[in-house]
Task: inverse folding
């Protein structure tokens, strides 16, 4: 697409910003794909492709299509303009089944005719057939590719398709009406009114004017004018002609010649196409301002994710495991031995808190309980609330797109949270240095108590406990001081250090909580926030691109 657009841009050189508008439509279409109505996006893509296709071809030629109901006199008008009996004119309807073309000035026309899909057997070139008497009149139409189309209201499906295809490709449209059917709702509703955006590339012809009594002609023309105004085609000229008698044909030829000469029809037509489809995209897309995701919403989402990941459970285990570990290291050794029999809370979670295991092992996460239905439901609720908040006020397609995006990756939730937790260092393994120091002191105190015990036992056995020769401290035997002091200080130290252990546990718990939540919020960002943001970005792109197109 880029290369054809490139070509289109180079070809649109007459100081117009049509190239920029086609690019704008292209940007909007890319951003709208999969978000706005598929058919509409498809139509916009067709307009872009068609514009790029047409602009790559002869800028010298103007494709003029003659369209209208069967029997309105399209082929007769075609013949009158070419001055030749090229198209079969018939009384049996419909007569024309395939479009035929007459080309004035063949240079560069071949590619254009091929693009239009007119086979050579349905082409006539006017240069070679000029009869000298009409040379001037015919030369006026230099650069015109005149197309005689089948009827648009045909019972033949092939006719509709051919007409719709070529009407879309033509630079200028000549609509032929006849006195019987000019007011047909079918023509106005299906073709004329929807072409309101294309009125600068349209001409309406009332044919068979010879069959209308002179005095009724003006009122019939006024009537048509009124109907066209109601269709939104107030700038479209209406010409009365008789293809059979040649009345008004010179005026019609002059009108076509004038438009072909200023070479604006091609870009005007494309411009009308681009604007029309851009307006429909804008209508579907809406223009409400976007709102950014609020921090509170994202925080609530992170919280729900953290709950579902089992962060509080892990944090609690880290805290308790640290407390137990430091407590055991610093406690009175006898209590430590007894405590060793009690289960370590980290074991239950299978947290590997060994000295060299600095991370939660993969097994660790699988032992954290699976998210409960309640937790999972909370995640869903928060995701929906976030999508609701951020899409409020936008048009339906965008509300749907945001909701779709918000849940598009939620099936990865379990695996991603597992991985996030497994990769997070919770810092629970290390025993602090002071605890080792306390442990040494504890053993020294215990040793003192044991020495005191043995000594006291010996003194008691020999009855020398209160002997003044026995070493004393403040009048009490040193042996007793060692025994009682060692025991009391050891137990006291153990108790005081429990407070310290609780503090370390809390700090490590907080640290683990922080790190785990950072990891989890990374997951919620990637699975929910980023996809939602992508939709909002697409919405903004569509809006600003369409603003550029529609000015
Ligand atoms: N009186 C009169 N008859 C006309 C005029 N133009 C066309 N006719 C006749 O109307 C009939 C239909 O003309 P065509 O030119 O074949 O009409 P068409 O729109 O090409 O019809 P299809 O090819 O079937 O869509 C023929 O009998 C023509 O002779 C006109 O200006 N005045
Ligand atoms: Mg015909």
Result:
């Amino acid at each position: 697409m880029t290369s054809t657009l490139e070509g289109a841009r180079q070809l649109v050189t007459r100081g117009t910003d049509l190239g920029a508008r086609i690019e704008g439509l292209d940007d909007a279409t890319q951003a709208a794909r999969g978000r706005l109505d598929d058919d509409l996006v498809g139509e916009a893509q067709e307009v872009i492709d068609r514009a790029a296709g047409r602009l790559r071809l002869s800028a010298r030629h103007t494709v003029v299509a003659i369209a209208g109901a069967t029997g309105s006199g399209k082929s007769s008008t075609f013949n009158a303009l070419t001055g030749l009996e090229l198209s079969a004119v018939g009384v049996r309807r419909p007569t024309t089944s395939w479009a035929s073309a007459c080309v004035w000035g063949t240079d560069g026309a071949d590619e254009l005719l091929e693009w239009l899909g007119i086979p050579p057997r349905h082409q006539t070139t006017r240069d070679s057939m000029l009869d000298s008497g009409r040379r001037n009149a015919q030369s006026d139409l230099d650069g015109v590719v005149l197309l005689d189309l089948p009827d648009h209201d045909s019972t033949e499906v092939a006719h509709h398709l051919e007409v719709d295809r070529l009407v879309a490709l033509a630079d200028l449209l000549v609509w032929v009406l006849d006195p019987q059917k000019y007011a047909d709702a079918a023509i106005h509703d299906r073709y004329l009114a929807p072409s309101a955006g294309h009125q600068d590339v349209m001409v309406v012809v009332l044919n068979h004017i010879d069959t209308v009594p002179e005095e009724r002609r003006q009122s019939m023309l006024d009537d048509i004018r009124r109907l066209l105004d109601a269709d939104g085609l107030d700038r479209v000229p209406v010409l009365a002609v008789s293809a059979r008698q040649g009345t008004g044909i010179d005026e019609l030829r002059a009108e076509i010649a004038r438009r072909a000469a200023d070479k604006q029809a091609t870009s005007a037509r494309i411009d009308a196409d681009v604007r029309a489809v851009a307006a429909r995209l804008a209508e579907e897309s809406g223009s409400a301002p976007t709102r950014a995701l609020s921090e509170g919403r994202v925080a609530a989402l992170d919280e729900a994710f953290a709950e579902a990941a089992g962060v509080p459970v892990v944090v609690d285990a880290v805290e308790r495991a640290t407390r137990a570990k430091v407590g055991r290291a610093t406690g009175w050794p006898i209590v430590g031995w007894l405590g060793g029999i009690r289960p370590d809370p980290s074991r239950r979670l299978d947290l590997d808190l060994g000295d060299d295991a600095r991370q939660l092992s993969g097994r660790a996460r699988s032992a954290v309980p699976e998210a409960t239905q309640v937790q999972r439901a909370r995640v869903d609720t928060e995701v929906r609330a976030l999508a609701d908040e951020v899409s409020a006020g936008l048009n339906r397609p965008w509300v749907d797109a945001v909701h779709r995006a918000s849940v598009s990756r939620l099936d990865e939730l379990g695996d991603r949270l597992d991985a996030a937790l497994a990769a997070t260092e919770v810092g629970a393994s290390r025993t602090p240095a002071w605890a080792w120091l306390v442990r040494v002191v504890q053993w020294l105190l215990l040793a003192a108590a044991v020495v005191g015990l043995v000594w006291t036992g010996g003194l008691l056995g020999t009855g020398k406990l209160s002997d003044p020769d026995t070493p004393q401290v403040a009048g009490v035997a040193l042996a007793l001081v060692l025994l009682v002091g060692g025991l009391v200080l050891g137990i006291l130290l153990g108790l005081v250090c429990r407070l310290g252990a609780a503090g370390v546990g809390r700090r490590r718990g907080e640290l683990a909580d922080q790190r785990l939540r950072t990891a989890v919020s990374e997951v919620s960002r990637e699975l929910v926030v980023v996809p939602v943001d992508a939709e909002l970005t697409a919405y903004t792109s569509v809006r600003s691109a369409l603003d550029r197109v529609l000015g």
Q: What stands out?
A: The beta strands are 62-68, 100-103, 123-125, 144-148, 172-177, 202-206, 238-240, 472-473, 476-477. The chain has three domains: 1-58+271-285, 60-262, 296-544. Residues 68, 70-76, 89-91, 93-96, 150-151, 207-208, 210-211, 242-244 surround guanosine-5'-triphosphate (ligand 1) (CB under 6 Å).
